[in-house]
Write a structure and sequence with these properties.
Order of helices and strands: HEEHEHEHHEHEEHHEHEHHH
Helix content: 40-55%
Oligomer: single chain
Structural class: alpha/beta
Number of strands: 9
Largest sheet: 9 strands, parallel
Bound molecules: zinc ion
Strand content: 5-15%
């Protein structure tokens, strides 16, 4: 009897061992960070210089080794862009990289491919040869011209000729919208629950990441390295460390942006009608999914506005 039990136990242990061996531990979810519209307009919480200092410190504290900053050189001519060149250099000195987000942030759908490509070239002329430069192009508004296939393909061909790769995103943090609400409230002198603001920001980031991860697994059958779309905002300067900690607590690992753009999805320009929701959503759309199913539930302006009113301003919306 004792012998039988121990044999059973041995069999169980072996099975457990084999099972472990046969199914490698579930691969960690991986994500890299990117920030757009650099140098971005000033927020209401700090100067652009303080924002850069705090953002660099937050990235260091969060042990994010390498994020990308997508630059619009036209913004350097604005009052808020004063000192922007030194701030961009500071990101690079801290280990991060810079890339092309167009010169003046146009929408392809609005200005058409010829003017659009000229604008990319103007930004490239500013970026070329700078330390930390990567040959990646991020479409402003994620507008890849999907409504006009000819325009879309003309710009894609122009990028290829220039050896620029699409600096796509997979996870839209919708940070610009929440940042805008917070800045307006601050300027209006409203009392804000800053802990609730932090928690709301963190919640939106984590839900968007998990939503895209689920879509990726369903579409690709594997987990790609994700890329967040964030912006150079006061919100990130204040709460980025919290967002990264929450991602890690949820099972995410932080990848470098160089690693992210080596993922196989970097070589897959989707032939999809829906390109504005990032690469995973576009690949899912290409595979037949309806765009309405491809938007993370909290990534709606009305939803964020309502949650901001309720949780941060403690105002119950009338409905
Ligand atoms: Zn932008």
């Amino acid at each position: 009897m004792t012998r039988l039990v121990s044999l059973r136990l041995l069999a169980l242990l072996l099975l457990a061992g084999l099972f472990d061996f046969a199914s490698p531990a579930v691969a960690a979810k991986r994500i890299a960070l990117s920030f757009d519209d650099v140098p971005r307009q000033a927020g209401a919480f700090m100067t652009p210089g303080e924002r850069t200092t705090r953002l660099i410190a937050a990235l260091r504290r969060a042990r994010v080794r390498q994020a990308a900053f997508f630059v619009n050189p036209r913004r350097l001519e604005e009052p808020y862009g004063q000192g922007g060149e030194a701030r961009i250099a500071a990101y690079v000195a801290a280990g991060h990289v810079i890339a092309n987000h167009s010169f003046s942030h146009p929408s392809l759908t609005q200005i058409g491919p010829d003017a659009y490509i000229a604008d990319i070239d103007r930004a490239a002329a500013w970026l070329h040869g700078r330390r930390g430069y990567r040959p990646w192009y991020r479409y402003p508004y994620l507008d890849e011209g999907a409504r006009n296939i000819q325009w879309r393909d003309q710009v894609r061909a122009a990028l290829a000729e220039r050896h620029l790769r699409n600096g796509y995103i997979t996870v839209d943090s919708y940070d610009w919208f929440l940042d805008d609400l917070a800045n307006r409230a601050r300027r209006a002198g409203l009392t804000m629950d800053m802990d609730a603001l932090r928690d709301l920001y963190v919640e939106i980031v984590v839900q968007a990441a998990n939503f895209e991860e689920a879509t990726a697994r369903a579409t690709l059958g594997r987990s790609p390295i994700h890329v967040t779309l964030m912006h150079e905002t006061d919100l990130e300067a204040m709460f980025l460390t919290d967002a990264v900690a929450a991602l890690r607590a949820d099972g995410w690992e932080i990848a470098t942006i160089d690693e992210a753009y080596r993922d196989p999805i970097a070589a897959r320009e989707p032939n999809a009608a829906y390109l504005g929701g990032g690469r995973i959503a576009a690949l899912a759309n290409e595979a037949g999914r309806n765009p309405r199913e491809l938007i993370p539930p909290m990534n709606q302006e009305a939803t964020i506005q309502r949650l901001f009113n309720e949780r941060v301003l403690h105002i119950t919306s009338e409905q």
